[in-house]
Amino acid sequence: MSTSEYVLTLSCPDRPGVVAAVSGLLAEHGCNIKESQQFGDERFFMRVQFTSPIGEDELRTAFAALAPDFALEFTLRAVARKMRVLIMVSKFDHCLNDLLYRVRSGSLDLDVVGVASNHPDLRPLTQSYGIDYHHLPIIPETKPKQEAEVLTLVEHYQAELVVLARYMQVLSEDLCEKLAGRAINIHHSFLPSFKGAKPYHQAHARGVKLIGATAHYVTSDLDEGPIIEQEVARVSHSHSAGDLVQIGRDVECVALARAVKWHAEQRVLLHGHKTIVFPR
Known about the structure:
Radius of gyration: 20 Å
CATH architecture of the largest domain: 3-Layer(aba) Sandwich
Structural class: alpha/beta
Shape: globular
Number of domains: 2
Order of helices and strands: EHEEHEEHEHEHEHEHEEHEE
CATH class of the largest domain: Alpha Beta
Number of strands: 13
Number of helices: 8
Largest sheet: 7 strands, mixed
CATH topology of the largest domain: Rossmann fold
């Protein structure tokens, strides 16, 4: 009998019987659980990865029937279906190159459908990976038109996730709302400190001993979106501001790659201003 693999994620009010109901439904339909994680904090969160002899439509119907009993909010996704990702970037190339390399090497199982930028600089890098590059210049007067073009690309490519890989533009409130829960940004600092321009220079001036980067969901509150992952590196008084920039680039790449991977694997569940992350 052939089987397919799926990931179920759900949240609901925390109450007895949820795990039993979900596992019982899966057993009833001949499914085999390969991985299960859960967390309860007034609201209950769960991620289950399983194989199933029945199709996605039948599974979805079964869980939709169960949902009213527990006020479940759930998603179901086939593991084999790669997430379609649009990457946005400005002039810094390290995060873009890192993501594209990880995809090509197989450590990130994504379908990068295109790259959009407000500068033409990274076209050669992008096209060397065989990926479409879209130059969408922007000035304050053309911001609404440019963001409409971004949304057109999202719709054209049916992108499920937008990754801001050092895209040095602030998205409008309207665009943030339209991409809510499906846009990830890498902030070149360990939030909430050292916001704004030249954070590594600010850190150097303060003599910090740790620098970091933060991957978070994009919201209209600048750099205040739900945090998915943070990474740090130890530094000392002997490091120059330039050293911190170089070290920081590595940290940014690692934090962003983890966040994108976990999102694509359905390991991140939103919980108000926070996230519940079930890493492997």
